[in-house]
Amino acid sequence: MLPPHTRAQWVDDRLREEILLGRLQPGERVAVERLASDWGVSATPIRESLRRLAGEGLVTLLPQRGARVSSVDAQLAADIYSVRITLEPMALRQSMLAAVDDHSAFADEVGIARDQLLGPHASAVDVYRDHRRFHRVLLSRCPNRVLIEQIESLTDRARLFQILGSAPLRGGSHRNEHATIAAHVISRDVDGAVEALTSHLMLTLDVVRRMVESRDNN
């Protein structure tokens, strides 16, 4: 039984989750007929979804050979983070300014998302989901939906780099950075929150750029 929203949206959500959680690995061929059988749908909405996800950069369509999950190398990851550094702080500023009249509820949501992210996790998948939720909550009041859609797409593509095992690991610094961002948001410090988010993204970009330089020098 499909959930009570459109079949196309359900398939889009399910296929995106399979990719972003690493159940379908970067470079792996998408077995449309198998997925259709497993999900109890026809192959048609899956093929339509693949075309939409190809437009987002998550899937690569191959003439006469179906589709494969896209791969993201270090250079492309660096390019993605460079754009995110421009867009996400802008969206956070808009989100916080739009939440002025409803700051208490917004602050509560940010605090809950922070606690979930910084709390214990049973798996890497749970960490990913809570990390994604935290950043979505930060931007949840941004009124510019086009801006949010662009950020979501870039975040998903950066996720492919993480799935490949190439993502930089910065340990406890990540926890401190997220806690700092949340603290500024909860205290209504717009400039501080924007600066903290920018710094968070720049630190990751710096690590990815060093990976690019190391690869080019080998």
How does this model look, in words?
- The chain has nine helices and two strands.
- With 218 residues, the protein is mostly helical.
- The chain has a two-stranded antiparallel sheet with strand order 1-2.
- A hairpin with a 3-residue loop joins strand 1 and strand 2.
- Helix 5 (103-118) packs antiparallel against helix 6 and helix 5 (103-118) packs antiparallel against helix 8 (172-186).
- The longest helix has 28 residues, at 190-217.
- The radius of gyration is 18 Å and the shape is globular.
- The model has no long low-confidence stretch (mean pLDDT 89).
Observed structural traits:
2 strands; mainly alpha; two-stranded antiparallel sheet; single chain; 218 residues; globular
Quick summary of this structure?
The protein is mainly alpha-helical and 218 residues long. The chain has 9 helices and 2 strands, in the order αααββαααααα.
Principal-axis shape equals globular
Give me the secondary-structure category: mainly alpha
The main pleated sheet reads as:
2 strands, antiparallel
The fraction of residues assigned to DSSP E strands is under 5%
Radius of gyration, whole Å: 18 Å
Q: Helicity level, as a percent range?
A: over 70%
Straight-line distance between termini: 53 Å
DSSP summary: helix tally? 9
Number of E-type strands: 2
Summarize model confidence as the mean pLDDT: 89
Spatial strand sequence of the major β-sheet: 1-2
Give the uncertain stretches in residue-range form: none
Give the topology string: H per helix, E per strand: HHHEEHHHHHH
